[in-house]
Amino acid sequence: MANKATYKLRKNRAVRLPIQVIEKVLDLKENKIIKSDATLDNVWYILYALTSGYRKEGYENYNLYRPFPVARLKKMIGDNAYKMPLKILLDNSIIQREGEAYPSFTTPRGEIVPSKCYLTRINPDLLKSLGSKNIEFSYVERIHSHKEFLKQQNYAKQFKKSFDTLEIPFMKLYRAIDEHLIKLENDGVCDVKIRYIEDSYREAVYRLQIGETNAIRKIRLYSNFTNLPNLLFKIIKEHNGLFESDVKSSQPALIAHLMEQNKVVAEDVIEFQKAVYEDDIYMKFTRGGLSRDEAKRRIFRIAFSKPESYPREKREFAELFPNVLAFIDSYKTKGDHGAFARLMQAMESKIFIDGIYETLFKMNITFFTKHDSVIYFEKDAEVVQKVIQEHFDKIGFKGQLKHEIVLERALKVMY
Asked: Quick one: pLDDT at residue 106?
């Protein structure tokens, strides 16, 4: 029997499961029923996905069946790879299914997805000997499927390879921090905020200095380098002569694209899309002395706040684009106003990570991604820009691309 107290898996965020379930899975691994780490990864993922809805309630309702769509397993594990770990869990009575599959399932956003969906649960016989109030829990430090684990590995390797090509001007970064702190002090910023900024900026640079890049792939791609404050990030781009391509007014562009996908047609929607794709949507809201940056923040508040928040700003927006606002608010149902923001993140991820990142990764190009932008060297500019535009054309995304290069503190912008 494997030593369950010391058994360790590749680390990621922890999965909280009943000890009886963990022990049963580890027995299967010890007895070679689960024959590979890849299958074990996928077993943990299925259990995580199945229990994510009622973990918080202490498993008081662990005996209830819940809809569990096959489409989720196919997406996260693979079209065929999900079958073996699922069969192991069913054959060894760790999970149970009830009846025939439903032909479709409904997402939390109310969307109907045509995919088989079985009612599934953890086998209560594994737990009932203690009673739901006395169930003991432990943590398994995995939540990703093996497919997702490999993606994370590839991202970490690609990031390190790209990062190692850069020259980081650490002394210049520390000087810039000192100059920034002096400016904040002269501008009358409070001491507490200045100390916070100093600590966070210096820690960010120090992490890079000791080689702690922390490249993580989630919905977005993260790293200590691309998450640097803009002041410091621009200095590194300038020092290395890096290009950056991104989408002008990216969030409104994603909203316009989503409305096209949903075939939302109205006069104000067409005007909104035209302002996004051909003009500068933020400039439409600069009346009354409002700067473009302030107008941008206002539109972000309108798009991502609760439906009842900022009523005056939303009335002004609705005067121009009533159907656009109604479309945005239609996603903020059942008190979950964050649903629309998550949808925008998922769309951005699908375009820039599943599409553009994966293509450039296979081409062995040195590059970085930061939300809706791609950062790369001048020698690769033609190829990278072509890949981005071709992917936009393929999916029908009409957002305006802009390309920047920072050299000797002079910003050149090419549209």
From this structure: 64
C-alpha to C-alpha distance for 159 and 148, rounded to whole angstroms: 16
Of the listed ranges 9-23, 91-105, 307-321, the one predicted with least confidence: 9-23
Helix axes 250-261, 339-349, angle to 10 degrees: 90
- Residues spanned by the domain of 370: 241-415
What are 182-196's pLDDT values in tens digits?
999 999 988 888 888
Q: Which of 181, 214, 236 is the last residue of a domain?
A: 236
Could you write out the three-class secondary structure of 33-83? CCCCHHHHHHHHHHHHHHHCCCHHHCCCCCCCCEEEEHHHHHHHCCCCCCH
For residues 28 and 112, membership in a common domain is answered with: yes
Q: How many residues does the chain have?
A: 415
pTM: 0.68
Q: Which residue has the tokens 């080689």?
A: 211
The token pair at 189 is 């910023």
| Residue 264 domain-assigned (yes or no) | yes
- C-alpha to C-alpha distance for 106 and 304, rounded to whole angstroms: 23
